[in-house]
Amino acid sequence: MTTALTTYLNFRRESRAAMEFYHGVFGGDLQIATFDDYGMPVGDGDGDLVMHAQLTTPQGFVLMASDVPEGMPFTPAAGISIALHGDEEAALEGWFHALAEGGRIGLPLETPPWGGRYGTVTDRFGIDWQVVIDTGAEAPAP
What range(s) does the PhnB-like domain occupy (predicted)? Predict the structure, then answer.
């Protein structure tokens, strides 16, 4: 038996656009199913909303999302970020800048006190990301 921890995002009506954006950033296989696809009863005009979307990337990332129909309570996530980390500097730097398109860079990719490179970005859908690049280099001495 296997177990996994997966990021699952909720949006009010932006799931499809968000997941297509992430597909463009990371590549991979994107599967999207609507409430109508599953025959789920939702309010008028909500049947085409995303009930479940899953992006599986070539790197093995799995990102899932769904829309929350109007008749259901929705509170956007606060205080949570998705962290990308590793030593593939070019890929991580590319993802950082791609996620920033239409969004906002909080901290540019720089050398933090612990070494490597670190930056934060909030994408155009309000999702916070941290990018940690292990460059193998120590932080400069103070």
Answer: 5-132
